[in-house]
Each structure stands twice: as C-alpha cells, then as structure tokens.
Design brief:
By secondary structure, the protein is α/β, with parallel strands linked by helices. It contains four helices and eight strands, in the order βαβαββαβαβββ.
Length: about 160
C-alpha cells in the first residue's frame, strides 16, 4: 500500500533537536548578516516563534515581532491569510530583517510574507522541495510527503514495545 495519510510518513522533532537545529540555523545566519548585524526578527506564528526566540538569543537581536499567517486547519492546507502584521514602521521593506519559520512546505505562507517584506532574509529550519526556492537559508530538507511532528504538537505517553512486555 503506497497511499498514506499525511501523518503516516512522519518526522518527529524533539525539543532538544529543535534547539540544536535552531542554533545551527543561527550559526549559518551569523555568516549571512549585514555588516551591522540583523536589526530585527519577524517570527511567523506559530511555528516560527520557538526558533526565532533561540536565534534572537544566539545573534543578540532584541527587536522581535510576529506575523500571524493561517494556512492550515489541523493537517489540511488551505488559502494563506495574514491575521496580524508586524510593526511596518520598524520593518520597512525588510532590509536587515530576518523572517524565521519552522518549515516551508508549499511556500504559500512565505509568498505572502515576502510580498510584505521583499528585502528580508528568509530562514527556516526545515524545507520541502515545493517551497525551498522561497528560503534563503535552511538546515534540513525533507521530502514533500513527509509530515513533521513538532514538539509543541506532541505529548509524552507510554508506547507498547514491539516485542512483548
């Protein structure tokens, strides 16, 4: 059987792994920074908030704002809509600004955000092939049909062993 539901080809990310990957992304972004450093970060909510917090700490960026874009209802992707914009007086066209998200999937969310901040540098931890061209810097590419389970979506629970208890 080759037909799978989105959650059946899963990639599980722990808090430790997310932290390591966000720090690795910060390390890469340090080398991409303008001469004066990054002047602000815009986290795409909700998934970009945890990576943005870690990256802001690592790169000593104090101006952090959010943009809220809704493009999923649970595991079903829908039309992307901006629910809340960042402080555009501070962000301008995005020059010297980092846009941070956990993942680029099809790129619909990033298309909206890049239209709003065309000069910003876009960085994600994970990238899928359909949206990869919209990202300047990322850490790990995953296949388009992989569903990523982030730690904020998961709860710890007992799991039966494969062979007898």
């Amino acid at each position: 059987m080759t037909d799978r539901l989105p959650h059946e080809k899963g990639f599980h990310v722990s808090w430790d792994q997310l932290h390591r990957d966000a720090r690795a992304l910060a390390w890469r972004l340090q080398g991409e920074a303008p001469e004066d450093g990054w002047r602000a970060i815009v986290a795409i909510t909700r998934g970009g908030m945890a990576p943005a917090m870690i990256i802001a700490r690592e790169l000593d960026v104090r101006a952090v704002d959010t943009i809220s874009v809704k493009s999923y209802d649970h595991q079903t992707q829908s039309e992307a809509v901006i629910l809340k914009s960042p402080d555009m007086d501070l962000m301008g066209d995005g020059d010297g600004v980092l846009i941070i998200d956990d993942l680029v999937d099809t790129g619909r969310t990033l298309e909206l955000v890049r239209d709003l901040l065309p000069a910003a540098h876009v960085a994600t931890i994970y990238a899928k092939p359909k949206g990869r061209a919209l990202v300047h810097t990322f850490i790990t590419e995953v296949s388009q049909d992989t569903w990523i389970f982030f730690p904020w979506d998961m709860a710890l629970q007992y799991v039966e062993p494969y062979r007898g208890a």
